[in-house]
Amino acid sequence: MKDSPASKGLSLYEAARRFGVPFAAEARPRDGSVEAGGLRFHYLEWGRAGDPAILILHGVAQQCHSWDLVSLALSHRFRVIALDARGHGDTQWAPDADYSLDAHQRDLDGFTAALGLGSFILIGHSMGGRNAYVFASRRPESVRGLVIVDTAPGQVAAGSRRIRRFITLPDELDTYEEFAQRVQAYTGRPLWLVHGSLQHTVKQLPNGRWTWKYDKALRSPGFKPETWPEEALWGCLKSLRCPVLVVRGANSDVLSVDAFEKSLETIPNARGAVVEDAGHLVPGDNPKGFLEAIDPFLRELA
Predict the structure, then answer these.
(1) What is the crossing angle of helices 191-198 and 176-187, to 10°?
(2) How far is Cα of residue 255 from the mean position of the Cα atoms in its chain?
(3) Residue 12: exposed, middle, or buried by beta-carbon count in 10 A (0-12, 13-18, 19+)?
(4) Would you give the end-to-end CA distance of the chain in angstroms?
(5) Coil, helix or strand for 219?
(6) Is the pLDDT of residue 74 over 80?
(7) 262 exposed, middle or buried (CB, 10 Å; 0-12, 13-18, 19+)?
(8) How many Cβ atoms from other residues are within 10 Å of residue 100's Cβ?
(9) Which residues of 61-79 are buried (b: 16+ CB within 10 A; e: fewer)?
C-alpha cells in the first residue's frame, strides 16, 4: 500500500499518557460480531465479562474506536461494549439506506438481545445519544443509568450544518495525509492524535485513493434520515426513570446552553456536567475532562 497509516501517529497508550487519561493496564479490546435484523454488527468489548456492563454508542460518521481512550480508562472496572452503528465502522451498510431512528431502535433491541445484556449503563454521543435516550425510554428495565452527550431535541442549526458540510465534502482523496489534515482542520485536534485515530475511519480503495468507511448514502448532500417529531423526543426525555447525566462541551455549537438547561428541567432525576476545552465531540476533544465528568455518576451506579 503506497500510503499506509500503520506507522503514523501514536499508539493508543502513548496518546492516553499524553492526554493525561488514566488507565490501569495496556488493555486490548476483543472484536466481536453478531447478526441482528439481517445485518452483521461489529463491536469492541473491553474488560471482564463479570464486571458491570456499559454499552457505548457513537455519533454520525464515527465508529466504535472513537471511544478507545474512554473505553481503555473504564476497562479496569467495567465491561465496556462499543458498538459500530449500522453503516459505520465495520458494521454492514443498510442495503435500503435506512438510517432512521426506528431502524436504530430495532438494531439496539436485536443487539442487546443477541449479547444477552440484562441491566446495563448506556452512554451515547450525538446521534448515539439520541438513540440512547429513546431506547432508555422504551426499555426502562434494561438501562440502569444513562449518559447523554451533547445532544437534545432541536439542536442548534449552525452546528448541525457545520457537521453536514464536513461529511459531504469530496469523499475520495489521494493520500491518507490529506484526510488527516482535513480532520485536523475540522476538529482542531493535534495531528499526532488524528494520525492514530483516523486509521479506523478511512479505507484505501483498489485504485490507491482513500475514502471514508461509513456508508456513502449518509454523506450524500440532502440526505436526512427519518427521525421522530421534536415533541415526541422531548416526551422520551420526560419519561426517563433511570438516573441520567447530561454532558455538554463548553464550546459546543450543537447543544446550546438553553437546550442543555431544558434537558435538565425535563428529565426526572437528571444532573448535568459541562466539559471545558471541548466542542461537540466531547469524548474526543477532552477525554480526560469527559472521564472526570462521568466518574462520580458511574461510581454511584456501580
Answers:
(1) 120
(2) 15
(3) buried
(4) 46
(5) helix
(6) yes
(7) middle
(8) 14
(9) bbbbbbbbbbbbbbbebbb
CA 263 to chain centre: 19
Q: Per residue in 99-128, pLDDT tens?
A: 999 999 999 999 999 999 999 999 999 999
Is pLDDT at 157 greater than 70 in this prediction?
no
- 120, three cell numbers: 446495563
What letter does residue 42 receive in the DSSP assignment?
Answer: E
The answer to whether 17 and 72 have CB atoms below 8 angstroms apart is no
Average pLDDT value for the chain: 93
Query: For the residues of 83-119, what is the DSSP string, one character each?
Result: EPPTTSTTSPPPTT----HHHHHHHHHHHHHHHT--S
Return d(Cα 34, Cα 116) in angstroms, integer: 11
Query: How far is the C-alpha of 14 from the C-alpha of 55, rounded, in Å?
Result: 25
Read off the pLDDT of residues 174-206 as tens digits, 9 standing for 90 and up. 999 998 999 988 888 888 888 888 889 999 999
In this prediction, residue 1 carries a pLDDT of 42
CA 34/CA 250 separation, integer angstroms: 37
pLDDT at 276 over 80: yes
Indicate the SS3 state at residue 30.
strand
Residue ranges and CATH numbers for the domains of the chain are 12-301 (3.40.50.1820)
* Residues in a beta bridge with 203: 211
